[in-house]
Amino acid sequence: MASLLQSLLDPKKNWLAAQHMKTISKRLRNFGLRYDDLYDPYYDLDIKEALDRLPREIVDARNQRLKRAMDLSMKHEYLPEDLQAMQTPFRNYLQDMLALVKREKAEREALGALPLYQRTIP
To answer: What is the pLDDT of residue 16?
Structure first.
C-alpha cells in the first residue's frame, strides 16, 4: 500500500504528479520562493526548532525571499523573466534538519524523556 502511494506521488512515475510539480515550480519562480519557504514555524514547533538550528545566513536568505515575495504580491507583479530563470524552487535547505529534529523528538518520546519544547499560549 505504501509503495503504491509512493508511486502515485512520484513525479518520475506519474504524469499528474509531474504536472502538479511543474505548476508549483512555476508559481514559486514567479515570486522567487523555494518550496521549503512555505513551511510555517508558527504552525509546527518542529519547523521552528529546525529553523533555529540552521546557519544564520540560510535563515536570512529565507526571510529575504519571503519579504520579496510579499512585496511583489502586494504590487501585483512577478519577478523579471531573467531572475525567474535563475530560481531553484525545489532545492531543499530545511528537509534534512527537519528530519533530524523529528527523529530526535521520536527518540525522546520512546525513551520517556520530557519534550524539548511545548506549545504555550502567548
So the answer is: 84
Q: What domains does the chain contain, in order, with CATH numbers?
A: 1-110 (1.10.1090.10)
CB count in 10 Å sphere of residue 40: 9
DSSP assignments along 60-98, one per residue: HHHHHHHHHHHHHHHTT----HHHHHH--TT--SSHHHH
Query: How far is Cα 46 from Cα 99, in angstroms, rounded to an integer?
Result: 9
- The half-sphere exposure of 67 on its side-chain side, counting CA atoms within 13 A, is 6
Residue range 36-86, pLDDT digits in tens = 999 999 888 899 999 999 999 999 999 999 999 999 999 999 999 999 999
